[in-house]
Amino acid sequence: MNLLLFGNPNCGKSTLFNLLTGMRQKVGNFPGVTVDKKTGLVAVGGQSISLTDYPGTYSIYPKSSEEKVVFDALNELYQQQQPTVGLVVVDASNLDRGLFLFSQLADLKIPLVLIVNMIDLADRNGITIDQQSLSKELSCTPVVFMNARVGLGKNRLLQAIEQQVKNQSAENHFSVNEHILAIEDLMQQENDALARSAKAKELCKKVVTKNETTQSKRRIDQWLTHPVLGYVIFSLVLITIFQAVFTLSAFPMDYIEQGLQWVSQQIAQSLPEGAVQDLLCGGIIPGITGVLVFIPQIALLFFFIALLEDSGYLSRAVFLMDRLVRPFGMNGRSVVPLLSSMACAIPGIMATRGIPNSKERLITLFVAPLMSCSARIPVYTLLISVVIPEKRIVGFMQLQGLVLFALYALGIIAALLIAWLLKQLLKQEGQSIYLMEIPDFKSPHWRNIFTTIFDKIKVFVLEAGGIILALSIVIWALSNYGPSQERENALQQLKSEKQYGIATKDDRQLLESAVLLEHSYLGKFGKTLEPAIAPLGYDWKIGIAIGSSFLAREVFVGTLSTLYAHHEEAGEFSLREKLKNETFPDGRNKFTLASGISLMVFYVFALQCLSTLAVSRRETGSWRIPLLQLSLYGVLAYGMSLLCYQLF
Amino acid sequence: MNLSEIPKRTRVKIMEITQPFLRTKLMEMGVVPGVEITLTLKAPFRGPIAFAYGNTQISIRFEDAAFIKVNPLAS
Questions:
Q1: Residue A215 — pLDDT band, cuts 50, 70, 90?
Q2: How many folded domains does chain B comprise?
Q3: A493 Cβ partners below 8 Å, 6+ apart?
Q4: Range of the domain at A29
Q5: Interface predicted TM-score (ipTM) of this complex, two decimals
Q6: Per-residue confidence (pLDDT) for residue A573, from 0 to 100
Q7: Best interface-test mutation with B: which of A61, A123, A319, A335 has the largest number of B CBs within 10 A?
Q8: CATH of the domain at A98
Q9: DSSP string, A2-18
Q10: Residue A432 predicted with pLDDT over 80
Q11: Domain range holding B29?
Q12: Rounded to a whole number, what is the distance in Å from the CA of A204 to chain B's nearest CA?
């Protein structure tokens, strides 16, 4: 026995789903598409029955890839003849729209329960529905009036479901009206729609009484979508979100890192030195840290997105922004994912799921990693402090600050240009239309918000976490192992040097780890790569640092510290001085304006982030898009850096 | 007249929707020729427009609004 949940968008379907299943939910994808499939268990009359939430739709005839999921599910049901009960949720304030979908499903002969939801809002709108006459009109279907937000009507609903489940078990299966599913021609669908909509409206006339209410509640929309004020308000909202994701997440991220460091220390103390301890403390625990460290950002961003969505503000923002991003092949819904990518691309890419059009979604997801994320900041600031002189230009402007701004702007411009190119290149799959309801404002529902956050974290950890962990271990192994004979020789040579002889114990360790990294597989790789990156102005040390920063961009700074045998405690200042004094064998400065800018530009473009790749794979369902991103942005990074090095 | 041409807060009657895909989609939402709607919002720079029908507002793009032929009603 299966329960299926259908309904229009904005009818409170997810609220009802959360109410019925609680936290016992599974989130995945529908087969073949990246549309959320949520299933959960409902306790009905002593047994647990699985309930599947289907995307919101106005009709069983699909007009978008999300709606296609519903159509496909109905077709599959027909073929498998599984015992099924459908729950159809309708918005009491828009009964005719809901009854349209209901009548299609009823004609399919699926046993249904009709849930008239949000009766409190209807009441406020001056709408009264006569439950008795509605039930009489739909004699075969139980009708339940509900306010799912507060749980009103839950018991009646469970009884109704139990009743339908019993009836259904007796009949064993339902008979689908094949004819209805076979309508693929738009003309026929239209005729069907015209007749159905007339019938639904007629039925509504019989059961709905309406008191005229004032339209004053919509006055606030005039401000929120105002040509000036609207954008000001939305900018403030965005700045708040960005600041929060950026700054508030720093504290829990620190705790996560420190906590796991503590675990690592405990393991180091309790396990004997050797390969197992190395693997655990050097590879696995940092890898796990690399997964968990994203949770605060994901939680915060989805807290805000869910808040905006649940309250109804998001649709106003989408309405306002659509025109501005449309020339770039994106949708008003792309704005929040793109801007939150400036804090971190991981939650940004996950948030593209809200974009209904698959082409616009793909474009947004594709260019999101070009927005400069917070992990690039340590790289930018270090390099700026090394190669950009500290001086003022035109009065109060700091040259260093201006360069940082230029790097951000470069990322945004590149993202828009590539989006525009993709718009020209990608084909539109089938017909699509931007059509969105702007629902009335309502106070956000906390259970919905926290369920969203919880689901997103779960999906990230379970579906992207494994890949991130595995790849981190590979990179760790490459940087910690190398040809043992060569490493031994290099260490021996180091120990015979004068510099080593006069160094303190601490400094000796640093020198040793620098030599060991140099002679690791990653180090050898960096050296082999040197001819390829020399035209960009980089040496093998930078090559190694770039290679290791695939884990996360900020690792670049750490790797350079290791390579230059630099005391982390001594602070960034001394690392900066070391880099400034670093020369090629022929005496030229290594970090010049040209090589510094070339390196910064490299980090603007290059997709130096395993986690982004893993999330991109999860959100597109294959490795095709992430690999395309990796190679395209790699080539771009190389080309642009080469250009910069030659120019400066 | 097209829905894209009329000013905000105008109440109009839908006469015809000339784009088949849009027509079917709107019909499924109950917006069929003959119903009365009010234009409520217009985004700047020929961005989307929104109209009130029933108890919600429905927003569509400016270009699509041009496919909706309407007759303004005396207010």
A1: low
A2: 1
A3: none
A4: 2-210
A5: 0.95
A6: 65
A7: A319
A8: 3.40.50.300
A9: EEEEEE-TTSSHHHHHH
A10: no
A11: 11-72
A12: 12
